[in-house]
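Sample pair:
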Amino acid sequence: MADKIAGFIGIDTSCYTTSGAILDKQGNLLADVRIPLRVKPGGRGLAQSEMVFQHVRNLPQVFSQLKESLPVSVRPAAIGVTACPRPVEDSYMPAFLAGESCAMTLAALYETPVYRFSHQENHILAGIWSAQGPDSPRFLAIHVSGGTTEAVLASTAGPGFQIEPLGESLDLHAGQFIDRIGVALGLSFPAGPHLEKLAAACESPELVPTAVIKNNISFSGPESHVLRLIQKGCRPEAIARGVEHCIAESLSLAAQRAAETAGLSEVLWVGGVMSNRYIRLHVAAQLSQAGIKTYFPAKEYSPDNAVGAAFFALRH
């Protein structure tokens, strides 16, 4: 086995994507495979049992593609796997058991170490790997997705982070807001890319109110307002851009307040919602005016992926 490449494998089985990735010793990406979970037309999500079933079915295909992406086979030096949603006590979700079981099997086969950590840290590490920062040992990380809308103080602690919550969504997450409105507009689930494409055709957006309470955000009121706009027959593209603007404005204000609360000047934005170009540009402009530096991973590393898990294994 001495002539084999020592790669670092990452595995992530989130709510809507089965992911695997491999980094080399220098942190270069050797392979990145993702298979979205299937949601029936008109659906707004999946039960945990269905997530686990699809992950178990997808994982062999993920590793088959990972192997085909490499010029030679890889003997893993270490394996990183997401085992829970967030790095807090009692954080649990059955979907992550599929990936963890796969990681344990590979670890036993290759007699290589496996490192468990959280899905939230996976996003943060993928963001740092892609954006090449922040370099500070303390920074604001804002995770915006279908399952999380949260601002945290991230402090480096070994290969992972100590996380201190600074703000969150009080009801709907930003991704849920997008998906619910998208489905109401007749778009496929998950609706993020479809709503972004629809909004790009807008010339005059509908006004959607924001609700930011201290460092926290509420999207339930804006959702009700938008559903009424749909019932009135307002233009779909104007509604879509109004939703984007509402989310961007809410995130910008909450981020500024959270940064002031903790005395931070750097913000890393992660999560699938942050792949939206309009939202990225808006929050970057708003925070720049407030003297806060922003970091964004490349768009393809904002949604769920396993690159952060491979990076976690490498950092060990």
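The chain has two domains: 5-131+303-315, 138-299.
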